[in-house]
TrEMBL record:
Gene3D superfamilies: Aldolase class I (3.20.20.70). It is an enzyme of class 4 (lyase). This is Dihydrodipicolinate synthase family protein. Keywords: Lyase. GO terms for molecular function: 4-hydroxy-tetrahydrodipicolinate synthase activity; 5-dehydro-4-deoxyglucarate dehydratase activity; N-acetylneuraminate lyase activity. Its EC number is 4.1.3.3, 4.2.1.41, 4.3.3.7. Signal peptide: none annotated. InterPro entries: Aldolase_TIM (IPR013785), DapA-like (IPR002220). Belongs to the DapA family. It comes from Aquimarina gracilis.
Amino acid sequence: MAIQWKGVMPAVTTKFTDQDTLDLKMFEVNIKAQLEAGVHGIILGGTLGEASTLTDDEKSILISTTIDIVKGRVPVIMNIAEQTTKGAIKAADKAKKDGANGLMMLPPMRYKAGQKETTTYFKEVAKSTDLPIMIYNNPIDYKIEVTLDMFEELLELDNIQAVKESTRDISNVTRIKNRFGNRLKILSGVDTLALESLLMGANGWVAGLVDAFPAETVAIYELQKAGKIKEALNIYRWFLPLLELDINPKLVQNIKLAEVATGIGTENVRPPRLPLEGEERKRVLEIIENGIKTRPSLPNYKALH
């Protein structure tokens, strides 16, 4: 399946039972809610997916389960976050064998690689697979920036096709467009900058709070794409306090609490993460409850295609 790298692509959470096993029933409930809302792809194994806590077998199960649920309607993309080039090549090969349609790739984990090391890492993995790749550029959280000069070199490989843009510098969207035109697709990776990025020319949105509010997220994308900026802004302004739950070290716990509130998830996390408690939990619940209470009525955004 060719990936167009556009629209809303949820970085979905991994659902766990009370016994700390995969909760595939609730996982299916959430994926079906995403599809019903009109998302354009599903991304597995990201930070929100608690990928660092998953076994290889669990990752395979999540890919195959997702493929069975989506039935070819949208691409299924697996995140690669490894410490070694050898490990990343192996993970990419396994993702393809499991049926993934594409990859999202972080720079090497733990070691702060230099520019040449980082580009070599990405290129070696890209050469090892024919799956399309989206580079995840998040220097704030992962301490390695993929610069435009580095992308110039990376784009020599046809299957490096997109960037999850998380530098927090909104003008970087324009820099990428000016330099690469449509060769490098841009998906905003920061919920609180998503609409701004789309209006500046980003092709899509790798979203977090979509996990709890899929229809509202897709509505914002479709409305702005159709030129209905005022309508998109009205939803986005309502959404912002909730979107801010994504730019927080406890984003997984925050978003899982929101999924509980909308009926499409549980708050079970895998240790060392623990559910929120005390004042922190109270504050997050107040934001979620206020969002639910003031949830806007949505226009028929699906008719805008």
